[in-house]
Amino acid sequence: MLTRRHIRVKVMQSLYAFKQSQNDKLATEEKFLIKSMEEMYDLFLLQLSLIAEIRENAETFLEKSQLKHLATSEDKDPNRKFINNRVFELLNNNEAFQQALENRKINHWKMDNEYAAIIWGELKESELYEQYMGTRESSFKEDKEFIIRVFKEIIVPNEKLYEYLEDKKLTWLDDLPLVNTAILKLLQKMKDNPGQSFNLPKLFKSEDDKDFAKELFRKTYLNDELLADEMLGKTPNWDKDRIAEIDMLLIKMAICEFLKFPSIPVKVTINEYLELAKEYSTPKSSIFINGVLDKLSKEYAENGKLNKIGRGLM
Questions:
Q1: Is the pLDDT of residue 2 over 70?
Q2: Out of 52, 64, 233, 251, which could bridge 91 as a Cys pair, Cβ 3.0 to 4.6 Å?
Q3: pLDDT, mean of residues 172-189
Q4: Interior/surface letters 63-101, b for 16+ CB within 10 angstroms, e for the rest
Q5: How does DSSP assign the chain, residue by residue?
Q6: How many C-beta neighbours within 10 Å does residue 172 have?
Q7: Taking the model in full, what pTM does it have?
Q8: Residue 263 CB contacts under 8 Å (≥ 6 apart), including other chains
């Protein structure tokens, strides 16, 4: 689930926090880095479980409607199409998903159930819901497409939910786009097969990615002075004090990849850090960083310092 770009973001955030705290316990901060990535998976499970929790609110609503003193014929014989949506059944019956919720103690919607109620209330009044409930029967294809639209159009844009997640963990806001994309992919791949309905994605695509996160963090931190020296003379119109801290950090991480990660192509490194600069630093940062990294990469190529392994990695 985690992309290399998001891993770089997590490393950047941890290195920045490490420097700001003036902490000297590398092992402790490395554990914090891994924890922050693990918490991203908690967010994935939390968002996915919200879909199932909406059903609980809908069922409660129907039960209360049937108990009305002056119940209508619709109240007495309600359309249960939404409650019977097969995506809910697949989520509730998937053992791996339910086990992951239990293991990671993801029970937020039981404690803070008003947020699922807000989503249900908004959904119930929507044109999307009205159209779906126009019939009492549906195919699995219709059920799945409806839930995907609910997630995209009702859940993802909800400001109250966004504020809730921000209050729970500030770093979740950076994680949210990737997590929501992962959930959409999972929903799209769902099959109408209780035994093989869907597979939960792994946090890391491979152990190599997890090792990459730890090594990039450790090697950038331990070689801080060396990486800073590499920048000398490459920023002629910039005093050290005028360079934004994030820019300095991104350049150091990129240089670290140039020199310490032989399997990562130079172009990939440059492109990745330019994208991070556009998102996390000043408007002019990507131009500045591009100039520094381009100059350094050409210099390293000429003097043989890159030592990249494989064809096309220069």
A1: yes
A2: 52
A3: 95
A4: eeeeeeeeeeeeeeebeebbeebbbbbbbeebeebeebb
A5: ---HHHHHHHHHHHHHHHHHHT---HHHHHHHHHHHHHHHHHHHHHHHHHHHHHHHHHHHHHHHHHT-TT--HHHHS---TTTT-HHHHHHHH-HHHHHHHHHTT--HHHHSTHHHHHHHHHHHTSHHHHHHTTSS---HHHHHHHHHHHIIIIITT-HHHHHHHHHH-TTHHHHHHHHHHHHHHHHHH--S-TTSS--PPPSSSSHHHHHHHHHHHHHHHHTHHHHHHHTTTS-TT--GGGS-HHHHHHHHHHHHHHHH-TTS-HHHHHHHHHHHHHHHS-TTHHHHHHHHHHHHHHHHHHHT-----STT--
A6: 21
A7: 0.87
A8: 308, 309, 310, 313
Whether 101 and 52 have beta carbons less than 8 Å apart is answered as: no
Say if residue 92's pLDDT is above 80: yes
The distance from CA 103 to its chain's CA centroid, rounded to whole angstroms, is 20
Tell me the pLDDT tens digit for each residue of 233-288. Answer: 776 565 555 578 899 999 999 999 999 999 999 999 999 999 999 999 988 899 99
pLDDT at 67 over 80: no
Q: In angstroms, how far is the first alpha carbon of the chain from the final one?
A: 28
Mean pLDDT score of the chain: 90
Query: C-alpha angle with apex 227: 251 to 204, nearest 5 degrees?
Result: 60
Q: How far apart are CA 103 and CA 95, in angstroms?
A: 12
Closest by Cα among 48, 47, 56, 46 to 120: 56
